[in-house]
Amino acid sequence: MTVHCIAPAPGPLVGPLNSEVRRHMDTERLFREASRVRKAIEELPQELRPHNFDIFPNGCCGDTCLILGIYLHEVCEFPVLDYVTGARRSRADNALMSHAWLQLDAVIVDITADQFRDGPGPVLVTESSLWHGEFNVDVQRHPLRLSDYPGAVAYELRSFYKTILPVLTSSPTGDT
């Protein structure tokens, strides 16, 4: 699995940690934890995945965001991330495409962008993405909360989350 992390370079490590270094450390940790979730989903046997994860990462960016966001907030203790959706035209055939990812302030967290031919890669944590900037996102940007979703969807995703959680919490990360 190839992973990409585009993060700001840390400032000088002199005296107390400045906000730039702290942000870099958080970005690195977000990347590490997002990569773990991606790997856990990929390695889960097909029969244990919900049907909409049959061809992961294709077509399941929204549900993946919910799983990732729950983990980052509940286990890793990051603040509630924004769930961002957007649409744009495909460069190949001008078809309308939609996509979802998470954001923590200005940091984009996306573990399904590689479902698109021109996507930046399987795991992206960055403050700047020209690719994401091509999406019109002014319609749905809101804090991620599973309780905001219909009962059946919330139940299925919560069950899936409980299936992968032991894998995520069994190997040490040094942070959680």
Instruction: Tally the beta strands.
Output: 5
Tally of separate domains: 1
Approximate strand percentage: 15-25%
User: Low-confidence parts, pLDDT < 50 over ≥5 residues?
Assistant: 1-18
Strand neighbour order, sheet with most strands: 4-3-2-1-5
Task: Round the mean pLDDT to the nearest integer and report it.
Answer: 82
Q: So how many helices?
A: 4
Distance between the termini: 23 Å
Shape, please? globular
Largest sheet: 5 strands, antiparallel
Q: How helix-rich are the residues, as a percent range?
A: 25-40%
Order of H and E elements: HHEEEEHEH
Oligomer: single chain
Structural class computed from helices and strand pairing? alpha+beta
- Cα-based radius of gyration, to the nearest Å: 16 Å
Name some characteristics of this structure.
5 strands; 176 residues; disordered N terminus; 5-stranded antiparallel sheet; 36% helix; alpha+beta
Briefly characterize the structure.
The protein has 4 helices and 5 strands; from the N terminus they run ααββββαβα.
Question: Can you characterise this structure?
Answer:
The chain is of the alpha+beta class. It has one domain. 36% of the residues lie in helices and 18% in strands. It has a 5-stranded antiparallel beta sheet with strand order 4-3-2-1-5, with helices on one face. A hairpin with a 2-residue loop joins strand 2 and strand 3. Helix 1 packs across helix 2 and helix 2 crosses helix 4.
